[in-house]
Design a protein that fits this description.
An eight-stranded parallel beta sheet has the order 5-4-3-2-1-8-7-6. Strands 9-10 form a two-stranded antiparallel sheet. The protein is of the alpha/beta class. α2 runs parallel beside α3 and α10 packs across α11. It is 43% helix and 14% strand. The mean pLDDT is 92.
Amino acid sequence: MRSWLFVPGDRPERMDKALGLGADALILDLEDSVAPDARPEARAAIAAFLGRAGRDGPRLFVRVNPLATADHAADLAAVLPARPDGLVLPKAEGAASIAALAAAAPGLPILPIATETPRALFRLGEYEQVAGDLAGVTWGAEDLPAAIGAVSAREADGSYTPPYEVARALTLFAAAAAGVAPVETVYPDIRDLEGLAAYAGRAARDGFQGMMAIHPAQIAVINAAFTPSAEAIAHARAVIEAFAANPGAGVLKVGGKMVDAPHVKQARRLLERAGTR
């Protein structure tokens, strides 16, 4: 899943429209985008939408409120009978968080937002223990600076300051260790599609396999960034074919460059993401 679009749970008219926007997954939100007083209505709206939405389009996830809150229990009671495709867990803190939610919602894939509290950073290595319950691992750059009293997570040019670069990198490695998809966090400037393209391109380069979106205009840019190009697919096939034709070789030249076993692994993973061989 390349693109994960947030849709506020108290805006049911946006849910129906979002089905046709091209996102690979929708995140029907009951947390930050919904005021506390509006959450009962939002739960009912999400449950009704899940009940009527076809399941041949984007996968339908629900972002519930954090564990150990009254809203969390109410969220689950309202949406689980409507059978979402998965859950997004904010302020996750390692394997225990996933185990607790999985016990309440058995069989549903969970996407944890894994860096929103200081404690969470020290538990990123635990997600390997609960990999079977995960849809991926993602991170956030908004709640963490607020939790520690930082002014911002970003430099003036929009790049992350060093502490949040660490959080991003650890999320990437935590997902890889668990064998699940690392998902890049949102790009908040919805008007800057050029900046978004550069941001998503860097994420794809670094190994992220998808990205969350907060506006429909971002979907096409994100999908393009995480869709391997025809040139990349052709090169991956050439690498695999070269080593298949030379099974005893350790290093070969393909396209004018030296390639070896790690490049073969990269090529196979790229073809898997592209849905081709």
